[in-house]
Amino acid sequence: MFRTHTCGELRIENIGQQITLAGWVQTIRKFGAITFIDLRDRYGITQLLFGEELNKQLEENPLGREYVLQVNGIVNERSNKNKNIPTGDIEITVSSFTILNKSEVPPFTIQDDTDGGDDLRMKFRYLDLRRNAVKRNIELRYAVNRSARNYLHENNFIDIETPFLIKSTPEGARDFVVPSRMNEGEFYALPQSPQTFKQLLMVSGYDRYFQIVKCFRDEDLRADRQPEFTQIDCEMSFVEQEDILNMFEGLVKRIFKDVKGINYSDAVERITWEEAMWQYGNDKPDTRFGMKICNLVFDKNMFPSKENFFDAEMFDIPPFGGKGASVLAIAVPNCSEYTRKQIDELTEWVKRPQVGMKGLVFIKCNTDGTFKSSIDKFYTPEQLKAIAEAANTKAGDLILILAGAEERTRKAISELRLEMGKRLGLRNENEFKLLWVLDFPLFEYAEEENRWVARHHPFTSPKPSDIDTMINNSPVIENAAEYLKHPYANIKANAYDMVLNGNEIGGGSIRIYQKALQQKMFEALGMNEEEQQHKFGFLLGAFEYGAPPHGGIAFGFDRLCAILGGSESIRDFIAFPKNNSGRDVMLDAPSSIDEKQLNELQIKLDLK
Amino acid sequence: MFRTHTCGELRIENIGQQITLAGWVQTIRKFGAITFIDLRDRYGITQLLFGEELNKQLEENPLGREYVLQVNGIVNERSNKNKNIPTGDIEITVSSFTILNKSEVPPFTIQDDTDGGDDLRMKFRYLDLRRNAVKRNIELRYAVNRSARNYLHENNFIDIETPFLIKSTPEGARDFVVPSRMNEGEFYALPQSPQTFKQLLMVSGYDRYFQIVKCFRDEDLRADRQPEFTQIDCEMSFVEQEDILNMFEGLVKRIFKDVKGINYSDAVERITWEEAMWQYGNDKPDTRFGMKICNLVFDKNMFPSKENFFDAEMFDIPPFGGKGASVLAIAVPNCSEYTRKQIDELTEWVKRPQVGMKGLVFIKCNTDGTFKSSIDKFYTPEQLKAIAEAANTKAGDLILILAGAEERTRKAISELRLEMGKRLGLRNENEFKLLWVLDFPLFEYAEEENRWVARHHPFTSPKPSDIDTMINNSPVIENAAEYLKHPYANIKANAYDMVLNGNEIGGGSIRIYQKALQQKMFEALGMNEEEQQHKFGFLLGAFEYGAPPHGGIAFGFDRLCAILGGSESIRDFIAFPKNNSGRDVMLDAPSSIDEKQLNELQIKLDLK
Questions:
Q1: Do B221 and A182 touch (CB under 8 A)?
Q2: DSSP summary character for residue B591
């Protein structure tokens, strides 16, 4: 061992001990004939004192930042204590030292506030990983991993590894494929998730399975997507939705406790998908704050069970873009005194292409009970008051109203709500709010192909009350314009998402376990019998031999870690991430391969 | 929840309780008007009693093997107790039942002694996994995983995930490659191990890393090799070989304790590679028994430090194949009374192509002090006695002698030793004997290319005393016939293998951490500077910025589990293994993929 202690270990109790440390030179400070060096390792920083004698040796063997140094010395009390670090009471009076390795001057400073840009830090990721800010993330990731494993172990889950070289069954996302040399002309695929394997394990009777496992999707990368990502993947047998919700809110609460020291004792709120869309305009609402949507006028097709507050005619004026538009509002608390400039800036914000609205209507609910709005000339004060009441405002609020086609407007008001929440400081990264979103639609309509696609995946079961609807109706959509009237449009799934601070951190479902229903599902997704057999014959086969009722969930591990770490970027929580083109710039991968390799695989390039 | 208890849970204390169970029908036994059913789940088996009333319902809804059944009932004491199962004291008097799912008759019986052949069981792996014999293995695998994680966690190791989509740097084994759609004409590779990443993590200061991780090698599969396999992969900084040996024999001992209840308190024996070859004829000797090799005559080039017992001339007789042959013996204890037939059978055994010897010479050391041998006519009794003494025999032993070219003969005598150990019952699968093999050669000679290849991998450091030899000599081999005289032939590596019962379960080394030495190593392996930069530029770069001394080890997780489970086959310990052609016969993977997928990847088939 090159050391007797770590650089984070020595305390006042160790004074007088002869010790050996090894680590990296963080800083060098010369004071006349003596030198102070901060030595850093994974565990902390310890101050080294090089007296006059050794200083001469240092001059002959000059050190630099990031040199790897081993020192022998004695622990002494510091005259000038540093309260900011655990080793701040002591320093090492060095008696001898060895330079274990030299270092070039790093291309950026190894500090929390580094001067290195993103590209440079990625190219030298091994140096970036030395920074405390990054190390904390990697350590947090391990703490989450460990906490999840402990909880699942205590609850009788068993970690079972599923294969990485599997069969390509593209459905939704694209597979990464791997040419097989030994089976020429054939390919493996890398798993998008272990979904079918964990279901087979339930058929095999393993009852409670988990895995913290890499998954792969060859999608066009958006910011903060990775071609390989990690899931906490779980499945249980003989359970109903309620059992899953309880088990896995327990998991997340345990992680809060172990990793953040937070006692999340509240019951996790639950909301249906429909209510989430109605109240928040999206299916992963941030419930750290209210500011719910006021549905002044909306498309009844989307929310058949809801009633309009007002006749559509009331909003048939130019600022709302004419009749037939949805008119959605939020009441921003205590902002009635926004200036013209502030309102103008918000108007520009909603008109940005990312939001895509034509304009913004406002009503200031003044503290004196009067109203001031951008639509004063169209409405009487009584009408404005009626809108304000519908929007559940109180004096001092600012009502912001967007109008237009239902889907786009709902999305926009949702984004405006989040933006206002952020501006008002209502989205505190140290506050954690969980939410279950339930009762998703089973199907989504795919316009281009005029058919149904699975909203979650093809193994999700419909609500028991909807099974007959599914079995007894043809999935064919005769009239594309009226797809919302097809019986399949209203089938709800036994599916659930867990949302944390407005991010989907996990999702799952109770699965189909009956062969006939699974076949009906495949058929609904436009898969003929031959295709079903080719892609999922093994699963349909397994369902013939006593498949138990089962369900599960998968958590996005990278995302969960990022949120717990108070970051928006998952890349910060991955040791060796890829950039937005799927490249590892440190390795310079992917790269071309030898002709010999291509020959052995019996493939060739076919560049367009 | 479909149950209140599991099928392994109920005991005499539960008598009188109203319970609900769910599981699979293992057996159905009718006795007149009543029926007994054994219900099985992951946790055990519970006997169900269907009385007369329910029997009628059973007749209307007949059950079969592997049906999924839910029952309500009361726990009662059994009149006829079954001592073989933990639930054997009780049975459930069923009050109502629900068939949760039906089952076809399985293609083989779900029992320890199944009637299913290998192919059938692999095709229906989800049924095979139900068998207790397989379930035990999967559970043992998880227990090993859990034990290793706990030990490593307690010793400050941190699990850090390394990427799966990396750069192809074929060196030794072939990479599996993954065409990149977003970077046309380029490929990722799947990692053969996280070797360079864990070294980078040491450069980054993470100090103690581990991962239980899938690795991939596209090799021609021998029996019991898998294209994807799992390693317990570890690395430590600021350590010397001794630290690694201590830490990781601790790991294996902990696994013995947690998984097998074995207190392995002995120090782990150590042997150099040279002594292992000398004494056992291979580098992973089974030390559960002695029967060491007697090196009567051998090739001095292979063991320069050893002396021959006899002049080669002594064995220059036809049974030994003439002068210049190595003559190697083992003394098989207490077998001097082997019959002619037994000796003939052994002779046939060594002549099999897998062993490849021309014949077998024997000397019986009779209990009366006389000798009887197949070479009586060539030697005096005194000469036989001299051989017997050299071979360290005692009266009653049987000396078996093989002769021929050094390498082949040593391999053959090693196999003969293992075979005799097995026949004599000296290789008990419940006895566990660990061994460290140390001081491997750094290089191996590649005859076809007349150059050096890395015996372990190119990151293994030479022994400190051999560094100068390596730096100061050219790797070029001028005279291929005399490669053993090249200075590189004697360079020893800072490498170690852990051997358990004759199987290599782990291997590692202290790594090179100096850029110049790493470059010299690459050069020795025939890699020019451009190639070095292209393949390993990131590592050479990392070594410029303060790389610490470090080393590590990787355990073959599948193999370790198999040995602990008393099996020779790793496939039995993998949930979804591939067959010897790398196929998953359950999934029918690999398979052809759509033309559309090939187009998107800009590759095409090029079948020969």
A1: yes
A2: B
Burial A96-106 (b: 16+ CB within 10 A, else e): ebebbbbbeeb
Query: Which residues in chain B have Cβ-Cβ distances shorter than 8 Å to A574?
Result: 161
B145 touches chain A (CB under 8 A): yes
Q: Between chains, do A124 and B188 touch, taking CB under 8 Å as contact?
A: no
Per-residue confidence (pLDDT) for residue A307, from 0 to 100: 87
Instruction: For chain B, say whether A263 makes contact (Cβ under 8 Å).
Output: no
B378 at A interface, C-beta within 8 A: no
One CATH from 3.40.50.620, 3.40.50.300, 3.30.1360.30, 3.30.240.20 for A289-427:
3.30.1360.30
Which residues of chain B are within 8 Å of residue A240 when distances are taken between CB atoms? 1-2
Regarding the domain delimited by B12-101, which CATH topology (the fold level of the hierarchy) does it fall under? OB fold (Dihydrolipoamide Acetyltransferase, E2P) (2.40.50)
For residue A483, how many other CB atoms are within 10 A of its CB? 18
Cα gap B372→B375, rounded to integer Å: 8
* Tens digit of each residue's pLDDT (9 = 90 or more) over A40-95: 999 999 999 999 999 999 999 999 999 999 999 999 999 999 999 999 999 999 99
Closest CA in chain A for residue B243: A1
pTM for the complete prediction? 0.96
Residues of B in contact with A590 (CB under 8 A): 165, 167, 178, 180, 183, 186-188
Architecture of domain A134-264+555-597: 2-Layer Sandwich (3.30)
Sign of the torsion angle spanned by Cα atoms B212, B218, B221, B222: negative
Distance, C-alpha B204 to centroid of its chain: 32
State mean pLDDT over B3-20: 98
What count of other Cβ atoms lies within 10 Å of the Cβ of residue A604? 13
A68-77 vs A177-179, strand pairing mode: unpaired
Tell me which residue in B41, B166, B547 faces A207 most closely, judged by beta carbons: B41
Q: Do A206 and B591 touch (CB under 8 A)?
A: no
Q: Which residue's structure tokens are 């694209």? A: A174
In angstroms, the CA B575 to CA B304 distance is 48
Mean pLDDT of all residues belonging to chain A:
94
Q: What pLDDT does B129 receive?
A: 97
Q: Label residue A365 by pLDDT band (50, 70, 90).
A: very high
Helix spans in A164-206 (H): 195-203
- Looking at the partner chain, which of A146, A197, A546 has a beta carbon nearest the beta carbon of B101? A546
Residue B457 has phi, psi (to 5 degrees) of: -160, 170
Bridge partners (DSSP) listed for residue B525:
none
Give the span between the Cα atoms of A332 and A417, in whole angstroms: 8
> B529-542 and B515-524 are packed helices; what angle lies between their axes, rounded to 10 degrees?
150
pLDDT in tens, B361-386: 999 999 999 999 999 999 999 999 99
As given in the structure block, the two tokens for residue B339 are 């019959």
Residues 24-83 of B with CB under 8 A from A: 24, 40-43, 66-68
CB A510 within 8 A of CB A244: yes
Tally of CB atoms within 10 A around B517: 16
Give me the count of residues in chain B.
608
A429 touches chain B (CB under 8 A): no
Residue B386 burial class via C-beta count within 10 angstroms: exposed 0-12, middle 13-18, buried 19 and up: middle
Structure tokens at A497: 């998402």
Average pLDDT rounded to a whole number, residues A296-318: 87
Identify whether the C-beta of residue A96 lies closer than 8 Å to the C-beta of residue A51: no
DSSP state of B258: I
Domain assignments of chain A as residue spans, ordered by start: 12-101, 134-264+555-597, 289-427, 441-492+514-547
Write the DSSP symbol of residue A482: G
DSSP A51-93: -HHHHHHHHHS---TT-EEEEEEEEEE-SS--TTSTTTTEEEE
Contact A590 B180 (CB under 8 A): yes
